[in-house]
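pls ignore typos typing on phone
flavin-adenine dinucleotide + seq
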Amino acid sequence: MKLAIVGAGVAGSYLGNRLQDEGHQIEIFESSRKESHWPVCAWGASKNMLETFSKNAGLNFDNYVLHRGKKLRMDLPHEKIEYLDLKGLVTYDKYKWEQDLCQGLKLNYGFHCNPESDFLSNFDYVIDCTGFHRSLLPRSPQDFIIPSYEFLVENVSEIDEFYVIGYKGARGYFWFFPLGDGRAYMGAGDIDRNYYGISEFFKKYHQAKILKKIGRPIRLSPPKRMLPFNNDNIIGVGESIGCVFPLLGEGIIPSLICCDIFIDVLNTDSTFDVGLYEKRILKKFGYYDDVYRIVRLKMDGKLNSVKHFKLLMSMYRNMKREEKRFGFGIDFEQMNRLLKAL
Ligand SMILES: Cc1cc2nc3c(=O)[nH]c(=O)nc-3n(C[C@H](O)[C@H](O)[C@H](O)COP(=O)(O)OP(=O)(O)OC[C@H]3O[C@@H](n4cnc5c(N)ncnc54)[C@H](O)[C@@H]3O)c2cc1C
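k done
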């Protein structure tokens, strides 16, 4: 098939690589210019899954790992501290990973696409991999995004582990993700736009040198709230259709899982079965809606551990089942403590 992929982020690059390998004719259109193209992300994810995705795409994930986490320190309101045991959480060179996925692909930079872009009519299907922008699909009235920005910094060898500060009411968090060699991503997502932790960080580590300042909002509304997934022959994949874990704003692995489902559905018939795609996405990411409801209730100060016991159990059971995919230990007591403290 002749397929256009719009957006060369994590989903677009991986999908392009896999689909071209399967014999499809692929062309990618990316809005940013080649010189300024950069994955806006803190580059943290579980290696347990990325090893498999990389292998599927002919890459060796070991070549991209920057930092292997052991413990994540989490500062919580009222000076409480929790440590998460890390079981595979790493930072990796996402820029290089995406560039390598795109080797041999026809990738056109500087093409900002919209539904009126004429050249897209030459393709059997157009895949909207524009992430947060969702540029080719209709807006969803249930869309919910959290503003965020971050710095790529160097000269910060003092902290060599994952570190986060959780905000009261789960309204966001500050992160510090080490990238090795004294480099790190440091930033925050915050519904109230206070971004506590960022200026405090610069005051404490005044030797930190800023290499980049980047940002964009992160979508927290899950697939169930991001319908429709298509508009005629335009089909959404990745964050554009809400494949982000709402509690953490973590979208690398969910977007890649979404790509695999897309590829599977594409391979089942000579025409793409949108109904089947929708069904499979909603099933796979079904519990993300429970997690999203927990987050919104918490943000509104309405989460009650008795009243919302079923929701909380759904989140715990599903996260426990997918522990490897998160890259940190999931413990019921700890999850309760965290939610109570926030
Ligand atoms: C500050 C920040 C930190 C994050 N940190 C993490 C993290 O550590 N771990 C994690 O798992 N997730 C993280 N996320 C979320 C994660 O980055 C995204 O969910 C994930 O990258 C989504 O992948 P995607 O391919 O769907 O979209 P993206 O990776 O966002 O790619 C979309 C691409 O489409 C292009 N594009 C947009 N509009 C158009 C258009 N109209 N025409 C052509 N091209 C277009 C963009 O330039 C971009 O290259 C973070 C997000 C942010 C904002």
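The chain has a mean pLDDT of 96. Residues 33 and 310 are 47 Å apart (CA to CA). more later
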